[in-house]
């Protein structure tokens, strides 16, 4: 019994249609509403999308810079540790920094401003040329005065490339490396770990 009733209802609604005038009024109303809705949506979405993009770009930039800094630091630490392990003999058997400065005339920086500080902390037994981060440097054979630990001190001009590294003290296998700078010169100190 319900099937004939359902069929009649379906036939009735399928036979109904809107007049041309009604269809045009609905289409006109939809066209007026759509652009306003789009504008309202984009007015709020655009600043949010710009902010999200800015945060993403900033995150990539900062994160990328931090990764580069860590990689540059790691390269210098490895280079200094490897150089220290070679234990090359000094080219200059001189223990006074003013005399070292005079014979190491290829250096493009001066050791003299830090002579007192270095002499207070280290007993110097000799020096040679080397490189740190691709930069010509002085490699000083030293002994820490307070604990008599033999070490190798590297001093270079603080270049933009070396300035991208971070100060640290890192143990790399059997060698400990400490990095720092004084604003004009870059230092690396390496000694055998216990």
Task: Write up this protein.
- This protein has about 190 residues and is α+β, with helices and mostly antiparallel strands.
- The chain has one domain (about 55-190): 3-Layer(aba) Sandwich (Protein Transport Mog1p, Chain A).
- The chain has 5 helices and 6 strands; from the N terminus they run H-H-H-H-E-E-E-H-E-E-E.
- The protein has helices spanning about 1-15, 20-85, 95-105, 115-120, 160-165, and strands at about 120-130, 135-145, 150-155, 170, 175-180, 185-190.
- The chain has a 6-stranded antiparallel beta sheet.
- Strand 5 (about 175-180) and strand 6 (about 185-190) form a beta hairpin.
- The protein is rod-shaped and about 115 Å long.
- The relative contact order is 0.11.
- The mean pLDDT is about 85.
What's this, in brief?
With 194 residues, this protein is α+β, with helices and mostly antiparallel strands. The chain has five helices and six strands; from the N terminus they run ααααβββαβββ. The longest helix has 67 residues.
What is the oligomeric state here?
single chain
As a percent range, the share of strand residues is: 25-35%
In the CATH hierarchy, the architecture is 3-Layer(aba) Sandwich
Q: Looking at the structure, what is the overall shape? A: rod-shaped
Question: What is the strand tally?
Answer: 6
Helix count equals 5
Structural class: alpha+beta
CATH topology: Protein Transport Mog1p, Chain A
- How are the strands of the largest sheet arranged? 1-2-3-6-5-4
Largest sheet data: 6 strands, antiparallel
* SSE sequence, one letter per element: HHHHEEEHEEE
What's the helical proportion of residues? 40-55%
Rg over C-alpha atoms, rounded to the nearest angstrom: 37 Å
Q: Average pLDDT across residues?
A: 83
Report low-confidence residues grouped into runs of 5 or more: none
Task: State the domain count.
Answer: 1
Ends apart, CA distance between termini? 98 Å
CATH class: Alpha Beta
């Amino acid at each position: 019994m319900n099937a004939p009733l359902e069929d009649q209802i379906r036939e009735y609604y399928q036979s109904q249609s809107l007049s041309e005038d009604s269809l045009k009024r609905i289409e006109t109303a939809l066209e007026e509403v759509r652009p306003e809705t789009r504008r309202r949506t984009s007015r709020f979405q655009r600043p949010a999308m710009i902010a999200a993009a800015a945060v993403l770009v900033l995150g990539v930039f900062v994160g990328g810079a931090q990764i580069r800094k860590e990689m540059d630091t790691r390269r210098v630490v490895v280079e200094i540790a490897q150089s220290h392990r070679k234990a090359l003999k000094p080219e200059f058997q001189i223990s006074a920094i003013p005399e070292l400065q005079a014979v190491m005339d290829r250096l493009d920086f001066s050791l003299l401003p830090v002579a007192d500080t270095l002499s207070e902390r280290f007993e110097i037994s000799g020096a040679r040329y080397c490189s740190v981060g691709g930069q010509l440097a002085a490699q000083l054979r030293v002994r820490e005065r307070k604990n008599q630990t033999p070490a190798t001190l590297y001093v270079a001009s603080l270049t933009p490339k070396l300035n991208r590294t971070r100060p640290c003290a890192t143990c790399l296998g059997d060698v400990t490396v400490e990095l720092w700078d004084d604003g004009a010169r870059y230092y690396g100190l390496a000694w055998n770990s216990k």
